[in-house]
Design brief:
19 strands, 7-stranded mixed barrel, alpha/beta, 10 helices
């Protein structure tokens, strides 16, 4: 068995068994709590630049299939598991998790105490780390010094957003999706409702978007700090009041910043498929799928035209917003549920209804 280590910037070392690629890799270590959905997790562009720890102990037991990808090319820096299943059992399985990570040149480590690692992240916050190359002899002090001197990356969205626009044709409502790192589940839900979709890069101008005469605009999820996405914020500012909008995750944060609010970094983020969120309008609680490291500052909303519609029941953070005047709403979680429960899938129907109502108003 090949060996490798996970070395954290505080000097903690986890020694385990290597799988996937043999190369070394560096990134932020985060954890996600879903019992299933590891394929969606490793292919989610919102994990760009991160080494992902799975808190559920047995990973790989149903393999990798052709249907559950959320992005074409994975952008994670590494995969950390307690136990890797080398002999998956599922009728949809096309290959093992190990073989898939090898094919994508992504390193993994198994056999470490993932509960201890999760506790470190929960107490100290997200930490930088290195996954060493297979069977590599390393100087821990040198690696720690290197990690502590390495600045955090700020160009996440630029790396995962497409370089050019592309269509996903339909005969229904015309929707422009600003792709900040879009999960395919969002596109799937729009296609399911027969939307005529144009997916555009994160730095597309408001003028270019409006020239397509959309019925609505979707602000997608994506990785990193929303304050770094200055082009997207400027575009959203110029779109507010022009067209109905629906924002998800990073799109929710960018809309808040474009409206005058601020955001902050959570200590260890919300990542998993079991986060309870309360709808303040109905009093209903829904279990949601989440993957984000930043949140909108509730106090900063006081002087904006936004109202809070949803809150996280675990920590009280903002989970949903609505504009007081214009047909725009956003949520911090993932109603397309990939992976996760489908409690909030109805929000796509609300988006369709909102576009229809706005169209009827204009033609009245």
């Amino acid at each position: 068995m090949k060996k490798r280590s996970l070395i954290l910037e505080d000097g903690t070392v986890f020694n385990g068994i290597a799988f996937g690629s043999d190369r070394a890799s560096q990134g932020e270590v985060v954890f996600t709590t879903g019992m299933t959905g590891y394929q969606e997790t490793l292919s989610d562009p919102s994990f760009y630049g991160q080494i992902v720890t799975l808190t559920y102990p047995l990973i790989g037991n149903y393999g990798i299939n052709r249907d559950d990808f959320e992005g074409i090319t994975p952008t994670i820096r590494g995969f950390v598991v307690r136990e890797l299943e080398e002999y998956p059992s599922n009728f949809r399985c096309d290959m093992t998790l190990n073989d898939y990570l090898k094919s994508q040149d992504i390193p993994g480590i198994e056999g470490i105490d993932t509960r201890k690692l999760t506790r470190i992240i929960r107490s100290k916050g997200v930490v930088r780390a290195i996954l060493t190359a297979t069977d590599e002899e390393v100087n821990v002090e040198e690696i720690v010094a290197h990690l502590q001197a390495t600045p955090l990356i700020t160009h996440h969205v630029r790396e995962v957003s497409p370089k050019a626009a592309y269509p996903s044709p339909g005969r229904g409502k015309r929707v422009v999706v600003m792709n900040f790192g879009m999960k395919h589940g969002i596109l799937r839900e729009l296609n399911k409702r027969d939307c005529d979709v144009l997916v555009v890069p994160y730095n597309t101008s408001a003028e270019q978007i409006l020239a397509w005469h959309p019925d609505g605009i979707m602000l997608s999820n994506g990785p990193g700090n929303p304050a770094d996405v200055t082009e997207g914020i400027e575009t959203i500012k110029n779109l507010i009041g022009k067209v109905p909008m629906f924002g998800i995750c990073l799109g929710h944060q960018l809309f808040a910043l474009a409206s005058g609010a601020t955001s902050f970094k959570l200590p260890f983020g919300h990542r998993g498929a079991n986060h309870p969120v309360k709808d303040l309008r109905t009093g209903r609680t829904e279990l949601t799928s989440q993957n984000h490291g930043y949140a909108v500052d509730a106090e900063s909303l006081a002087n904006t035209d936004l109202e809070i519609t949803h809150i996280a029941l675990n920590d009280g953070t903002v989970e949903g917003l609505r504009h007081k005047t214009y047909p725009i709403f956003t949520v911090q979680y993932h109603p397309e549920a990939s992976p996760g429960p489908e409690d909030s899938n109805h929000l796509f129907d609300e988006f369709i209804d909102m576009m229809e109502a706005e169209k009827e108003k204009k033609h009245a």
